Amino acid sequence: MSNVSNLAVYAGSFDPVTLGHLDLIERAAKLFDDVVVAIGVHPTRKPLFSFEERLSLLLEVVKPFPNVRVERFDGLLIHYCKALGARVIVRGLRAATDFEYELQIAHANADMEPQIDTVFLPTRANYGFVSASLVREIASHGGNVSHYAPEIVCAALRNKFPRP
Predict the structure, then answer these.
(1) Which domains are present in the chain?
(2) Is the alpha carbon torsion for 121, 123, 133, 9 positive or negative?
(3) Sign of torsion, CA 118 123 128 134?
(4) Are 149 and 16 in contact (CB under 8 A)?
(5) pLDDT tens track for 99-147
């Protein structure tokens, strides 16, 4: 394993991965020696894409970043980070409403594991409104999501929502 003191984790459901997610992954890869993109698996949620599909899509889009790997986690992110030896959790912020929620989570995480810090990266302006749920909604109605998701994801969405 590499220098775990500079290991960061960027977690999410990635259902599906968007260009906003990819932008944050790229920026985190420049800031930290190693980045784990952690796909959260929650037994009560019903994602559009299976874990295996999300893993496959993410593995494809992170290929340009040699210091990024993709893994699965369940349970509390902070426990996963501690087990990995991660020093940093990376979170993206789109709007002020994201900040309030994310700050609460960061405070709880810091209370449980003070040695793990949360770093907030604001999204780029052109991705500020993009969310996986928005991409799924547009795609489900046959809309073009090529400005919001990598082409491999667009193709996967077309397969999920075929048009007659």
Answers:
(1) 4-127 (3.40.50.620)
(2) negative
(3) negative
(4) yes
(5) 999 999 999 999 999 999 999 999 998 888 899 999 999 999 999 999 9
